[in-house]
Amino acid sequence: xxxxxxxxxxxxxxxxxxxxxxxxxxxxxxxxxxxxxxxxxxxxxxxxxxxxxxxxxxxxxxxxxxxxxxxxxxxxxxxxxxxxxxxxxxxxxxxxxxxxxxxxxxxxxxxxxxxxxxxxxxxxxxxxxxxxxxxxxxxxxxxxxxxxxxxxxxxxxxxxxxxxxxxx
Length: 168
Hints:
The chain is mostly helical. It has helices spanning 5-16, 23-31, 35-58, 76-85, 95-102, 116-134, 146-162, and strands spanning 19-22, 64-67, 89-92, 137-140. 59% of the residues lie in helices and 10% in strands. The strands form two sheets. Strands 1-2 form a two-stranded parallel sheet. Strands 3-4 form a two-stranded parallel ribbon.
């Protein structure tokens, strides 16, 4: 949460001439309600089921940039879809920056707690090893504007694309 997935993803897609998709926005589009209401009515488990269906479908599409919700990595099936169907980029940010960027909003049901910082730290400890395992590229988003970070990703992608195979 608050790493810049949507903003950076949109800019990256624009620069690559690809369609940008956001799994959370797609869930909202399909259901006609916001994520917070899904959490309220179906709980996190219900949301995660919907999230998997959307990631399964969207990750099959070609020539896209896909932003997923931060908890998508919790599901091994999501990780398998993402890893086998595309290049995964982990946008890493500190809890301090997450606190600043997420603010107090009802749109983030997992942060509907009096101690947001502790909750963010718990989520980081739980998810960070999964992000590290899954990602082929990690970009720290604590500092830098969206355009600069998108340019950095493009530069890193270019290096990955031109690197010799490991057995060479």
